[in-house]
UniProtKB/TrEMBL annotation:
Localization per record: Cytoplasm
Record's keyword annotation contains Transmembrane: no
Species assigned in the record: Paenibacillus sp. AN1007
Coiled coil segments of this chain: none
Gene3D superfamilies on file: 3.40.50.880
Alphabetical UniProt keywords: Amino-acid biosynthesis, Cytoplasm, Glutamine amidotransferase, Histidine biosynthesis, Hydrolase, Lyase
Lineage: Bacteria, Bacillati, Bacillota, Bacilli, Bacillales
Protein known as: Imidazole glycerol phosphate synthase subunit HisH
């Protein structure tokens, strides 16, 4: 079976799909409910604004499909904006309801001496190194580009942070649902290993 990459008109579909294929798995870019729910795993990418993305998801009916996938045992990974959409609300250009798969909110970085957007290579700190997502990995640097960051309501959902004036949510997870604020496919060896570990959790056949 394939890894479904949800196509709702606002994702970095090509780069994510190519990364999945480089790791030896079949990538299926699709907006079809049946294909998404039949896949071994689901990736929700995202580039753009939180509110616009939720409008696209609702207009296509894919908000319910993603929530249905998340409610089952099928591994789900949100990437960048896709991770933020997993939360209850986002405050980008006004407050908007998210998918509410993980309780919490997405807020803008507070004014400080640090530049916004947060852009560049920052080191991850694994808070739950026993999580299978981190199997065989050592903490290292990944590449971030974002102006908003997630605040988890449940501290156990926070799997990894980076430092940008304060601890910033980098990886979240609950059960088989995960999110990465950075783009793993653009984050060198560590990013690809994290993506590979997620793909291995899907049980899909691959050469990774």
């Amino acid at each position: 079976m394939a890894i479904a990459i949800v196509d709702y008109g606002m994702g970095n579909l090509h780069s994510v799909g190519k990364a999945v294929e480089r790791l030896g798995y079949e990538a299926l870019v699709t907006g079809e409910r049946e294909a998404i729910l039949a896949a071994d795993g689901v990736i929700l990418p995202g580039v753009g604004a939180f509110g616009d993305a939720m409008v696209h998801l609702r207009e296509t009916g894919l908000d319910g499909v993603v929530k249905e996938a998340a409610a089952g045992l099928k591994p789900l990974l949100g990437i960048c904006l896709g991770m933020q959409l997993l939360f209850s609300t986002g405050e980008e250009h006004g407050e908007h309801e998210g998918l509410d798969i993980l309780p919490g909110k997405v807020v803008r970085f507070a004014p400080s001496e640090l530049k916004v957007p947060h852009m560049g290579w920052n080191r991850l700190e694994f808070l739950h190194p026993e999580n299978p997502l981190f199997a065989g990995l050592d903490a290292g640097h990944v590449y971030f580009v974002h102006s908003y960051h997630a605040i988890t309501e449940n501290k156990d959902d926070l799997l990894a942070v980076t430092d940008y004036g304060h601890p910033v949510t980098a990886i979240v997870g609950r059960g088989s649902n995960f999110g990465m604020q950075f783009h793993p496919e653009k984050s060198g060896e560590l990013g690809m290993k994290l993506l590979s570990n997620f793909l291995s959790l899907t049980g899909a056949s691959g050469t990774a």
